[in-house]
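pinning this so it doesn't scroll away 📌
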Amino acid sequence: RFRADKPGVHVGYVHVKTDRDRMVVPVEVEVLQGGLHPSPKELDFGILTSPEEHRTIPISLFNSGHDPVALNGVSFGNSDNNMTAIFPREAVIPPGGTAQDLVKLVFFGTKPGPASGRIMLTTNHSNAGISVVDVQYQAMVLHGGVGYERRHVSFVVPATNTSHTSHALDMFSGSSKGPANTSRTVTFTNFFKVPLVLRSAAMETCTDVLTVETSALDVIAQPSEQWPSLDLHLSAKHALQTLELPHICLLKLGTNASTHHIPVPLYTGRLHLTAPIGSLPPSCSRPATAEAPVAKPKEPEEPRAALLPDTLPHVFAVDAAFDQWSETPATEKMLPAPLEDHRGPLLDAAGKCQGSADDTRNGKVGLVLDFHALGAGHLRSRSFNVTNLNPVPVNITFHSPHDEVLGFRLVSQHLHPGAGSALQEISQETAASAGGGGGGVGATPNGTSSSSTTPRAGASVAAPKGAANRDRKRNRSGKRKGKVTRSLESLGLGKTALTRQGEFTVLPAHSAEFELYVRALAPGRGGGRALVVRDAAVMSTPVDRIPIQVAYSVLNGELALATPSIELSRSHAHQSLVMSSTFAREVRVSEVQSERGHWIQAQEAAASIGASSTVANIVFQPRPVCNNAFRCMSRWAQEVVRILDTPNPYDVASASTMRYLDAASARPGGIDGTRV
């Protein structure tokens, strides 16, 4: 039992006597006076090597008194601009309690040089002598970095079943003589203003895949000088078996002044394709269950293929029964089941859906876009994303040789949210080397190494190198000039041009969204059967050839207006919209909508269209929405003049009212977006 009369450190010994021996146990007890006590009492922020670098150390407070104590504020004895304190307002520590990590102190490496001082924690303690708690700190800011060529620490791991093996690695390693090198020689440069000693060099991750050999340990490098080279050895077999490629490993370099983590990307150069659920076949978008197992792939019969018309050798038709949920045939040759992929939303472009082997594509089915049921001659688009998780830009070439495919267009290119911080940093360097435009850049043998010698976050910077070659034909959006066949403006879809053959560049850590436009076959072709356009579009990369297949079924028939125009006026404020259908199947009305909803209302009158049906009631109701009477009268008068005095009433009634018609047989989706 110990009882202290005054605070301080009490030291003593306890003598223990037994029947065999004597023992002496030293005892040291620290008695705290009432008030707050910080932990730790001294802070060491270490060495910071970049203006963007910062380090955070939390402080916990213990209240040894009998009364609760509140923390009122935090101040710095020497007004250090590199220091920032974060703490909750009016925080109260109860008697005998500890507030863990109550104050967080952040030190920024903005100003070079040594830094030290006192941090004062002000409380509301009644004793003025202990109302302020002092914490000492020290730090060293040494701007600089370790330079290297990023391409020297990047490895291309050959992917299986690549189709362009003759030039598969041109873009990534600068060699087309086979698999990527399994060894890299890396030279690091001291960009600090003081001499550095290299203490250690080892892989922090991927230790079973990458090994390091160097004779540079304990070698001093003067400012702007290099250490002896370091060798990285890759086991491609282990990388394919144990890692989810692409993957970024970390090489840890330790010096007498700093520690650096060097990203070592391992990648295949392959891209990933994704598409919305509505763009995929049902067997790809609906997972199989135990009650409804996915059918095994079934090969089409050769005699049936021989009966296909000679004018459309790239199209084959399948006779199959339609279930109650889908217009798509049950054959798994055309619509195979999806591959189970552990990368979440990203699916490998080499096998979007698993199906039977296809000798003409080295076993690859590619991406299958389901356009569902289309009326003869109707147009529809489907979107898909091409994601690049490689540390280098990837050039892709699209080619669409078939008449059903009107073309495709690049919608946008944006940073992929699933990309890691290291890959995003590489992407920023790539954009900077392209002039800051953020557009596409050509992939060069230099990969993504930067030409900057300015230290950045982590103090690991790329050494200077020549500027990357830029393709003059590529614009700032990442799109190159291609063969433009027609424009969407002529199809009523805007001014963006469609192309059937073009080249694009997808930046590292970016996802590019494309749209593919398809027009159904002319009436009389297909006969309502499901059609597949093989190789409707082909996407080629330096390491892969990815076919994009198009699946749809043709419904023959037409929808027609009984009257060419509808005239609305005060005396004829209600008119009926009558339409006729020549489709053999039931045509359901899924939506009747007016773009001028404040003035013209389209009220659905029938759920389906027969030989002649009243589809909707068009009602003219001038109900202005405004803030005052003058604006109400002005807008009402202008709208009435526009409607009543227009030289062509058809432009008002038909152009302002769109009928979205569902022409599928018992299909909830149907012919989505069909307009008349």
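📌 and the second one:
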Amino acid sequence: MVLESAVTDAQVRGAPGGAVITLVQGVSGRFTSRLHSERVAVQLGVWLGVSFTVAFVTGLISHFMQHPPAWMLWPSRPVNLYRVTQGVHVIGGPATIPLLFGKLWTVYPKLWQWPPFRWTSYVLYGALVIHVTNEWAKVRRNLWTAECVETQEEPRSRRRFLGTVAAASGLTVLVTVGETFAPLSKLAVLAPRAPGVGPQGVPVNRTAVAAGVSQMIRRPDFRLVVTGAVRSELSLTLTELSGMPQHTVRLPISCVEGWSAEAGWTGVRLRDLAERAGVVPDAVMVVESLERSSIYRSSEVRAPHWNDPLTFLALRINGSVLDPDHGYPVRLIAPDRPGVLQTKWVTRVMVS
């Protein structure tokens, strides 16, 4: 495929950087591969569009779950919803990279065309919506109609190229998905945390030492306080908290990095504490940590979550007392929440 110049010789000679334009025109004629075609670009563009959209939407979900606006009430069920959406987000991002490189290679000759009207060209470079709208006709023509006429060799070379790009994208998924999908954990060489490696078999992102609480959590005068808009304020020692009805449930910790790990958690249901303190059903709770230096030293727990029987103030993990790095003496564990909002080293619950 030989690209035609968008400007005349006279324009080249009179334009700023005319020598550069001449060089560009000479180079552009060298792109002769049939794979530099509209049809290949369209097919890769569709794949890239789907991949990018999935990563973008799941990224928005992650953002709004961590920083929910006042009007949004995120559900507590299904339990693994955030685990799936964040896993797809982190896995889908790397999978998009080979598709992007493949698309750039296919349309690469276009990058050597000198724009006759530079100011409009630069404006349109960032107009993704305009680009997608403009490409829609090409998608219909190349994928959903029989208008394209091609030689016998073109389908084979196109399929080989598209297959190579798809294989590269699939490989990135294969070496990432194990951080969420346990049977493939040994292949997760791109995972930021090794599944199953950590205190009590569960990875951690922030240790007690890093949080600056390693001394405070050992104080014998520790108390969990429930205060604010309550009928009866509570101030419970660890022994008193352990004396309340204990429940055990298996829930995942799902990190924004994409990895997740399931564990058995034992502790007190948050709604049992709320009932004991006389909290109204639609109240909002803020669970506060002993940690003071992190933006996630507290987390908001809204009614759909704290009323859920799977939302705990956990004292044990997998049958053992919480390791300091897992939030000893008390941590929040709830279904369908990002790991950064599963507050560790809990010392107070403020109700409003």
